[in-house]
Amino acid sequence: MTPDVQNRYDRLLEILRELGSVVIGYSGGVDSTLLLKAAVDVLSDRAVAVIGRSATYPTREYEEAVRIAGQIGARCLEVTTEETDNLKFRENPQDRCYYCKTELFSKLRPIAEELGIPWIADGTITDDLGDFRPGMKAKSEQNVRSPLLEAGMSKADVREASRSLGLPTWNKGSFACLSSRFPYGLAITPEALGRIDQAETLLRDAGFREFRVRHHDERTARIEVGPTELSRLFSDELRSGIVARLKQLGFIYVTLDLQGYRTGSMNELLPKAQPGSS
Question: Which domains are delineated in the chain?
Answer without folding.
Answer: 3-164 (3.40.50.620), 178-267 (3.30.300)
